[in-house]
């Protein structure tokens, strides 16, 4: 009998072993999908291995083997490289294998219990030689189709609806179905956009070109130094050699300019892959790569799994961006995967940023990555930065929202018809509702999180789970009606700015104004075209924007991030300030940046004001060294969660029993229980010098957790972001 070992998706995702089925009559290999019976259901799984066993062995099997129901693929969906990558991810991130395979595929191809169907399209072709008398029109339609061999039925009908239908009725033409494919846009290549390269650009390109084999480069190039042009030149060389190129960006909707430039340079041969596409669109882009219809892919995190088979170059723009990390199992980092694939294909990997992550820069510093530098702006000038000490200005009676200095600067720009960006660093700084007689804060009933007040709709919303409620008339604690709104949100800021500048046209960009599809692009386009004077928003406006007329960036609460109890808060502050100030003065006009801060002497703020990444790096490394945080130590987090807090407690205790015996690592936690979406959560952090050892320890906890059939869920996160 032929046996197939199959990975299946199961709601209890604890099950990380294969299930065995009888595969008699099927020709299967690793990486193909099959339908199998599971309990009373039929589900889809992935073949891991096929094996022949003797009748004797079949008889000794502890249970009767059920046969496979059907075979879905004729060819393996994942090639050897991707299959091995899945195994590697499962080990490294301690995640179920099936989840690793799933995250590599567009949802239409996922071997899941709810698998989507692929859209088909009707085509027509000639199926019988013509031996009857046709009308002139029918004859022309017939000949047209004969020339083309086959045509999309819709295209055929556009021209020949009535004669076409008649030909089908006569049995001369038949309709058949084919998978729906992406139609490649017919874009004219635009060579004129190519610039004469600057010295910095030439040098960097030469350094990368010199290397003939896999190597990881870190390009530290200030904002506006012309990195994109470097990517395009390098890409074009690889494509000439017949290689494929992957260009990773943090968020497509925030980088419409990048997509436009790539398309202008490479014409139609570009696939775009990001989370804003629907399932069918994703599938179509995926097929373009698989069938070698395109040589270059521009995409976000998940594009790193595209089915390339001859990669020459992977570029990861804004490599420090946190959206490169997946925030559900498997919690992979796109950079890890890019480097893995680069090695496999002997391809070059170029990480680029104006504010590289500390880990990457430390590696480049040690020579693990090759460090490349572009310290000059193309237009020659950096924006000047002014820091406003808020403690002083508020004491003088100025507004705590916008200081006089910033108000004056805005006024000046409005007079000159230039544009302004105002950034409100809202994370950890949302407007909350507090009772002033007893101090009660309205919390989300489902999460241990304070509700945020949304003025336009006059409701309270939970930013963690989305729950919304009306403002209670009286405080539920002391029954007084004395609510006060604390903190500062984008809506309140907008209102304030509008009062100060009644004629100014203001655009607001935050999570509330960008829920609809294409909302991002539309807002940015509108600002770019000059339909507004002031763009006001949260961190999402700090990224990638290149708008000529912006000459002032005001950062309303520059140090809000510093108050967080996250070891990365200084790094995040530096990134945000440097990236945001990079939006100012990109054109011919000189730019200015004003940072309002309560703690103006903090090195993150001072270094950003001087555009001095290296000093920031050195001071921050010292701090990390002293406190024992990455990149000097590694971290792994284990989060136990369940609706029932006893389940959580039991699992945490079991984990602590195992971990307390381990050496060469430090246990941080268990932290207090914390409720999110009605689930109790508890985290244990493991810290140590040896990453492999930590993974090994956590795997131990994970295996025992599964073996003892613990009820709580266990989520593992290697190098977690939020602490
Ligand atoms: P970065 O990605 O480093 O922030 P960009 O690639 O967006 O910078 O380049 C900044 C600006 O300079 C863009 O408007 C770009 O068109 C322009 N640019 C890039 N390279 C050159 C060059 N060699 N000569 C003239 N302009 C250039
Ligand atoms: Zn909530």
From TrEMBL:
GO molecular function: 3'-5' DNA helicase activity; ATP binding; DNA binding; hydrolase activity; zinc ion binding
Tagged with keyword DNA-binding: yes
Record Gene3D superfamilies: P-loop containing nucleotide triphosphate hydrolases, PriA, 3(prime) DNA-binding domain
Reactions accelerated catalytically: Couples ATP hydrolysis with the unwinding of duplex DNA by translocating in the 3'-5' direction; ATP + H2O = ADP + phosphate + H(+)
Biological process, per Gene Ontology: DNA recombination; DNA replication initiation; DNA replication, synthesis of primer; double-strand break repair
Cofactor(s) the protein requires to work: Zn(2+)
Membrane-crossing residue ranges in chain numbering: none
SUPFAM superfamilies: P-loop containing nucleoside triphosphate hydrolases
Its job: Initiates the restart of stalled replication forks, which reloads the replicative helicase on sites other than the origin of replication. Recognizes and binds to abandoned replication forks and remodels them to uncover a helicase loading site. Promotes assembly of the primosome at these replication forks.
Similarity comment: family membership: Belongs to the helicase family. PriA subfamily.
Quaternary organization: Component of the replication restart primosome.
Protein name: Replication restart protein PriA
Organism for this UniProt entry: Amedibacterium intestinale
Taxonomic path: Bacteria, Bacillati, Bacillota, Erysipelotrichia, Erysipelotrichales
Protein encoded by which gene: priA
């Amino acid at each position: 009998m032929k046996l197939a070992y199959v990975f299946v998706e199961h709601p209890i995702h604890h099950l990380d072993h294969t299930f065995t089925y009888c595969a008699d009559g099927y020709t299967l290999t690793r990486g193909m999908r099959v339908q199998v019976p599971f309990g009373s259901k039929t589900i889809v799984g992935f073949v891991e291995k096929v094996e022949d066993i003797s009748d004797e062995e079949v008889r000794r099997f502890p249970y009767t083997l059920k046969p496979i129901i059907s075979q879905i693929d004729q060819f393996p969906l994942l090639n050897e490289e991707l299959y091995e990558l899945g195994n590697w991810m499962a080990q490294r991130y301690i995640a179920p294998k099936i989840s690793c395979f799933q995250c590599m595929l567009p949802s239409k191809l996922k071997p899941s219990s709810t698998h989507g169907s692929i859209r088909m399209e009707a085509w027509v072709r000639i199926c019988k030689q013509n031996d009857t008398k046709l009308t002139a029109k029918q004859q022309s339609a017939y000949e047209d189709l004969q020339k083309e061999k086959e045509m999309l039925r819709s295209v055929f009908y556009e021209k020949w609806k009535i004669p076409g239908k008649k030909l089908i009725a006569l049995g001369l033409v038949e309709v058949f179905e084919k998978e729906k494919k992406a139609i490649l846009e017919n874009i004219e290549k635009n060579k004129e956009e190519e610039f004469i390269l600057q010295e910095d650009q030439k040098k960097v390109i030469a350094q990368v070109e010199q290397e003939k084999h896999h190597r990881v480069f870190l390009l530290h190039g200030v904002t506006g130094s012309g990195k994109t042009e470097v990517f395009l030149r390098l890409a074009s060389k690889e494509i000439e050699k017949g290689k494929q190129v992957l260009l990773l960006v943090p968020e497509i909707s925030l980088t419409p300019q990048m997509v436009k430039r790539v398309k202008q340079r490479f014409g139609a041969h570009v696939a775009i892959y990001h989370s804003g596409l629907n399932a069918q669109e994703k599938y179509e882009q995926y097929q373009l790569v698989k069938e070698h219809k395109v040589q270059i892919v521009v995409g976000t995190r998940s594009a790193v799994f595209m089915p390339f088979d001859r990669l020459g170059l992977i570029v990861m723009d804004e490599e420090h961006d946190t959206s490169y990390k997946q925030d559900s199992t498997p919690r992979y980092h796109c950079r890890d995967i890019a480097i893995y694939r680069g090695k496999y294909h002997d391809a070059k990997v170029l990480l680029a940023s104006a504010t590289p992550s500390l880990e990457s820069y430390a590696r480049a510093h040690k020579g693990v990555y090759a460090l490349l530098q572009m310290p000059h702006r193309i237009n020659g000038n950096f924006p000047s930065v002014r820091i406003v000490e808020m403690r002083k200005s508020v004491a003088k009676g100025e507004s705590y929202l916008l200081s006089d200095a910033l108000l004056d600067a805005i006024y000046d720009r409005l007079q000159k018809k230039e544009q302004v960006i105002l950034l409100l660093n809202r994370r950890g700084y949302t407007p909350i509702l507090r009772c002033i007689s007893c101090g009660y804060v309205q919390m989300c009933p489902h999460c241990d999180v304070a509700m945020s007040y949304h003025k336009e709709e006059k409701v309270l919303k939970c930013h963690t789970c989305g729950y919304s409620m009306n403002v209670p008339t009286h405080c539920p604690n002391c029954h007084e009606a004395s609510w006060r709104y604390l903190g500062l949100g984008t809506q309140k800021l907008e209102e304030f700015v509008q009062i100060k500048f009644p004629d100014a046209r203001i655009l607001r960009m935050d999570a509330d104004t960008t829920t609809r599809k294409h909302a991002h692009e539309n807002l940015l386009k509108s600002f770019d075209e000059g339909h507004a004077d002031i763009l006001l928003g949260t961190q999402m406006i700090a990224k990638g924007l290149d708008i000529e007329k912006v000459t002032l960036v005001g950062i309303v609460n520059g140090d809000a991030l510093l108050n967080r109890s996250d070891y990365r808060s200084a790094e995040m502050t530096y990134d945000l300030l440097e990236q945001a100030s990079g939006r100012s003065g990109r054109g011919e006009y000189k730019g200015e940046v004003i940072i309002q801060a309560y703690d103006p002497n903090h090195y993150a703020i001072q270094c950003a004001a001087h555009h001095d990444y290296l000093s920031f790096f050195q001071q921050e490394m010292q701090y990390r060294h002293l406190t024992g945080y990455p990149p000097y130590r590694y971290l792994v987090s284990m989060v136990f969660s369940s609706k029932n807090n006893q389940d959580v407690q039991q699992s945490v205790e079991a984990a602590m029993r195992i971990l307390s015996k381990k050496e060469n690592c430090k246990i941080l936690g268990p932290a207090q229980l914390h409720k999110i979406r009605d689930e109790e959560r508890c985290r244990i952090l493991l810290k140590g010098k040896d990453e492999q050892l930590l993974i090994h320890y956590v795997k131990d906890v994970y295996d025992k957790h599964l073996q003892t059939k613990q009820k709580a869920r266990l989520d593992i996160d290697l190098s977690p972001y939020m602490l």
